[in-house]
Amino acid sequence: MMNYFPDEVLEHVFDSIASHKDRNSVSLVCKSWYRIERYSRRRVFIGNCYSISPERLIARFPGLKSLTLKGKPHFADFNLVPYDWGGFVYPWIKALAESGIGLEELRLKRMVVSDESLELLSKSFANFKSLVLVSCEGFSADGLAAVAANCRFLRELDLQENEVDDHRGHWLSCFPESCTSLVSLNFACLKGEVNLGALERLVSRSPNLKSLRLNRLVPLDTLQKLLMRAPQLVDLGIGSYVHDPSSEASNKLKHAIQRCKSIVSLSGFLEVAPRCMSAIYPICGNLTTLNLSYAPGLHGNKLTKLIQHCRKLQRLWILDRIGDKGLGVVASTCKELQELRVFPSDPFGAGNDAVTEEGLVLVSAGCPKLNSLLYFCQQMTNAALITVARNCPNFIRFRLCILDPVKPDPVTNQPLDEGFGAIVQSCKRLKRLSLSGLLTDQVFLYIGMYAEQLEMLSIAFAADSDKGMLYVLNGCKKLRKLEIRDCPFGNSALLEDVGKYETMRSLWMSSCEVTLGGCKTVAEKMPSLNVEIINESDQTEFNLDEGQKVDKMYLYRTLVGHRKDAPESVWIL
Amino acid sequence: MAKQGLGFEITELRLGLPGGGGGTEKNEKKRVFLEISEEGENEKSNGNGKSQVVGWPPVCSYRKKNSLGDKDGSKTSKFYVKVGMDGAPFLRKIDLALHKGYSDLATALEKLFGEALRDADRCEFVPIYEDKDGDWMLAGDVPWEMFIDSCKRLRIMKRADVKGFGVLQPGEAFKGALKE
C-alpha cells in the first residue's frame, strides 16, 4: 500500500526519524524503502572504522552530510593498544573529497588525524561546518590553522582530550575577518599559547558563539574581556583562574561573569586558586553541567561551598578529593542530578583523598534521578550496592572502579557478586556496565539472567572459569561490545558460539587463557570477522605454536575483510 | 563459614594469605594480580609498596597527564607565598597548594632552606605566618585548609628570637617537624 505514496512523501516521513537505529530498521522493510532511505540519509554513525570502507559508505549514502567515526578499541585509552595500531582518518577524507559528497560535519573518536588530513578536509568541502575530535592524535597546530583559514562557514571546532603538538600558536590568528559563524570553540586541551588579541577579536565578531572552552594559557584579564564580549555564552570552559579576590581585576571579572546569565555549563579551572570561587557563585544557580575533574586544586570547603550553590545540577564530573562528606553535600543539594563521575586524583596513592561506598549510598539516596555513574573508589560493599540498586532503579550506565581491582567487600570479606547482582536485577534499562572488585562466576550468572538491555560490558580480574563468559554470551541478547582483561576465560568459552560475535560490534580479550589455536578457529569459522592478535613483545616472529596463549585479541565484524594498514605488531588471522 | 573464636583456628589447616578470611579463590585472584604487578611493564613501586599494573586503574592517558597535579609536578593550582628565614640572604617563594599538610610543607621548607638550617647553631626553628589580619601566628594550630586560606607569607624564625616577636602559644605538631 505504501508504494502508492510518491517518494517525496516517504522521504518527508523518514526525515522525522532521527535515530540511527530506527533509520536502519526502516531501510530493511523493503527495496523501495531502502532506496528512499539511503538517498535521504544525512547522518551516518560508524562505530568501528574498519567495519566498512569509505567507498561503500559513499556508494550507499550519496547525500551524506554528517559522519561519525570511531577508531581504536576502548582499552587503547589505558595504553593496552600499540600507538600505531591504526584508525587513520586520511583514507576516509580522501575518498569523501574525491566523491563530491558535500560533507558538513565530521566527528572522530580515538582516531589518528594527520595535519595532511585536516588540510585536505579544509580544502575539499565548501560547506564544512563542524569538526569534533575526541581522544585523537597525530595532528599539530598546523592542521588547526588550515581548518581555521579555509573553512569559511565553520560553526564548530571542538577539541576534547586530544594529544596535540601545538608549539606554534598562530592557528587562532588564521580565522579570517570574514569568519563570523562560530557557535562553538573548544581548545582546552591545547598546551600552547594563542594570540590573545586574535582570540578577543574572533569572539567579538561571533555573535552566535554559545560554547567557549579556553586552555590554561588564557590569562584572567583576557577571560574577563571575552566574557564582556560574549554574555550570550551557554557553555564556558575556564583555563586559568588565579586571582586575588580583593583586587580590581577580580571585581571586574565578577561583574563580567554576572552578565553571563545564560551559562548552564561550566568546566575547566585547569589552574585555580580556591579562594576565588566566590566570583562564580552568581551563575551557579543556573548550572546544569559542572566539570571540575581537571581541577585538583579545588577541594574541601571551597569545593562543597561551590556545590551548595548548584541546585539545578544534572551532570557533575568531579575528583575523588570531594570525599564522602562532599558527596553528602551533593546528595542534599543536587536533587536533579542524573549523571555523576568521580575520578581518582591519586590512583596509586595511599588513598588519603578518596571516596568509599558511603559517598555513593548518600548520592543514591539524595538523587533519585541518577541514571549514569562512573565511580572510582577505595572500596565497595555488597550492602551498599544493594541499597544503591534499590534507591536508583533507573541506571542506564553503571561503571564502578575499585582502585584495588580484586578487593572483596571489606566488611564481610565476600566477593561483590551479590551487590552487582542487585544492580542488574533492579536496573532494567541498564545498557552499560563495568565491574571491579573480587568477583566470581556468580556475578556473570546474574548478568546473563537479568541484564537484558545490556550493550556494553567491561570486565577485569574477575571470574573463576569459562562459565562466567558463557553466562554473558548466552544471556545478554543485546550485547554489542565486550571487553575483558585478566580473566580465566579460555577457548571453550571463546568457541562455544562464534556466530554470536557477528551480532556484536567487537570483542576484546587480553591476558586471558585463549590460545592462538582458539583464535584461529574463530577466524576460520567466521570469515565475516577480523580476528586480530596484538603482540607487543620484542620477538620479531610470532610464536606459531597453537597452544601459545594470546596476549591480546581484538575481533570485530566487518563487511570489508582484512584491513591493509595494520602494523607489524598486529597479526590478522 | 565464619571463623569466630571457637578455638579451632590454631589447628585449622588453611590455604592462603594470613589474615585473609576467604578461601583459595580470592587468594588466587590476588596472587594473579600481584604476579601481574611484578611482571607489569610499568614496574614502579610507590611509597606504599603497591606495584602498578599496566592500564589500571582505567583512567585515560590524557586525564592522567592533566588532572593529577602533585605527582607529576605540574601545577594546576597556584598559591605562592613568600618565605623568609632568619639568616638566609634571600627570600623564597613556595606554592602552598602543592602540599597536602603541615608535614609535607615542613619537608619542602627543609629542602628550600636546608643549608641555612644546617649551618645555624643547634637551635630550634619556629615557623610562623602572617595571616589576613596582619597578625603573626604560629603555624600548626589550625586545620591545614584554614591555614592556606589565611596565610599571606611565611617566616622561619629562630626559637630564641621568638619571645620578643609577639607570637602566640606554641603548638606541638609543626614545631617537631622542623627540629634540627
Verbal overview:
Chain A: Pathway: Protein modification; protein ubiquitination. Chain A: This is Auxin signaling F-box 2. Chain A: It is found in: Nucleus. The complex is a heterodimer of chains A (573) and B (180). Chain A is α/β, with parallel strands linked by helices and 573 residues long. Chain A contains 20 helices and 23 strands. In chain A, α5 packs parallel to α6 and α15 runs parallel beside α16. The two termini of chain A are 48 Å apart. In chain B, β1 and β2 form a beta hairpin. Chain B starts with 23 loop residues before the first helix and ends with a helix. The N terminus and C terminus of chain B are likely disordered.
Q: Give the overall silhouette of chain B.
A: elongated
Structural class by helix and strand composition of chain B:
alpha+beta
- Count of individual beta strands of chain A: 23
Proportion of strand residues of chain B? 5-15%
Distance between termini of chain B?
A: 54 Å
Give the CA-CA distance, first to last residue of chain A: 48 Å
Rough outline of chain A:
globular
Instruction: Tell me the number of helical segments of chain A per DSSP (H or I, 4 or more residues long).
Output: 20
Order of helices and strands of chain B: HHHEEHEEHEHH
Mean pLDDT of chain B: 64
Low-confidence regions of chain B: 1-32, 34-51, 70-76, 167-173, 175-180
Assign a percent range to the helix content of chain B. 25-40%
Quaternary organisation of the protein chains:
heterodimer
Order of neighbouring strands in the sheet with most strands of chain B: 2-1-5-3-4
Main location (chain A): nucleus
GO molecular function (chain A): auxin binding
Pathway (chain A): Protein modification; protein ubiquitination
Keywords (chain A): Auxin signaling pathway, Developmental protein, Nucleus, Ubl conjugation pathway
